[in-house]
Design a protein that fits this description.
The structure is a single chain. With 171 residues, the chain is mainly alpha-helical. Helices cover 82% and strands 0% of the residues. It contains seven helices and no strands. The chain has helices at 2-8, 10-22, 27-35, 43-61, 69-81, 86-105, 112-170. The chain starts with a helix and ends with a helix. The relative contact order is 0.11.
Length: 171
């Protein structure tokens, strides 16, 4: 049975998937993400490892993709902040199909239900990505508004000071 094979080879699937995701980064970054095991020195690597392992566990358990939203968030939030475009930020989800076929299937047929599950997972991942990007845009808009208000306040103070100086000079 496919689910049993997937569960038996879970570690290999997770390791290959982590390697695949990390190798999408520039070489220097990938080396750091691979070699620095300290969660505090390498929070990105820790989030990637944790999120990908949780997703594989959810797929093995037959979880609804919506239930894996938090695990997806661990991986996608970092990629959204790093301003990966959607295909680069989310392609890792669909790579799971190829990795499972390479590690688990050994040439045997992968059930359509597995592919459908990964496709639904991709839709949830896109929703998570867009939510993260919306949060970033909101933060940036607030920063711009606050900067603009600060400039306007300083201009108003300057005008008031000039008006006072002008009044004092004319007396």
């Amino acid at each position: 049975m496919f689910a049993d094979e997937l569960a038996a080879r879970r570690g290999a699937v997770v390791d290959r998937w982590i390697e695949s995701v990390i190798n999408a980064y520039p070489e220097e970054t990938a080396t750091f993400l691979k070699e620095q095991p300290n969660r505090f020195a390498n929070p990105v690597g820790a989030s990637l490892r944790e999120g990908l392992a949780l997703i594989v566990d959810g797929v093995i358990a037959g979880s609804d993709p919506e239930e894996l939203r938090q695990a997806l968030d661990l991986v996608i939030r970092v990629r959204a902040v790093q301003e990966f475009k959607p295909p680069a930020a989310l392609g890792f989800v669909f790579d799971l199909k190829t990795i499972v076929r390479d590690v688990v299937a050994d040439g045997s047929e992968v059930p359509k239900a597995f592919d459908d599950s990964v496709d639904r997972l991709g839709l949830v991942a896109f929703d998570v990505y867009m939510s993260c990007r919306e949060q970033l845009w909101s933060i940036r808009a607030k920063e711009i508004r606050n900067q603009s208000l600060g400039i306007l306040e300083r201009m108003q103070e300057w005008r008031e000071k000039r008006a006072r100086e002008s009044e004092t000079a004319s007396k």
